[in-house]
Amino acid sequence: MNTTIRPVNTIFRVLLLIWIFGYLFVSCAPLLTGHLVIGGITFVVGLVFFLPWLAVALVLVTLVWLTRPPTR
Predict the structure, then answer these.
(1) CA separation for the pair 68, 52 (Å, rounded)
(2) Is 49 in a helix, a strand, or coil?
(3) What is the pLDDT of residues 17-68, one digit of tens each?
(4) Alpha-carbon distance 10 to 3, whole Å?
(5) 63: alpha, beta or left? (left if phi > 0; alpha if psi -120 to 50)
(6) Given Cys at both, which of 30, 45, 52, 58 links 35, Cβ 3.0 to 4.6 Å?
(7) pTM for the complete prediction?
């Protein structure tokens, strides 16, 4: 069994988690905390950057899938 796959897979999983929740936090947190002007701006910017965000998320999911440990 290749022991270098497991740490790489874990790193990709952590990056995917940070990527998903970081995007949600940056685009929605000001709106949810009551800052309507800043929240509206970040919400619109979040919508604009959704497709690039989705592309990177799909790349990270693919990397997680490709580096998964082999099953027995």
Answers:
(1) 25
(2) coil
(3) 999 998 888 777 777 777 778 777 877 887 888 889 999 999 999 999 998 8
(4) 12
(5) alpha
(6) 30
(7) 0.73
Counted residue by residue, the chain has a size of: 72
Copy the structure tokens of residue 51: 């497709």
Q: Which residue has the tokens 């995917």?
A: 16
Q: Show the tokens assigned to 23.
A: 């995007």
* Token reading at 59: 């790349």
| Residues 6 or more apart in contact with residue 48 via CB below 8 angstroms | none
Burial class (CB in 10 A: 0-12, 13-18, 19+), 33: exposed
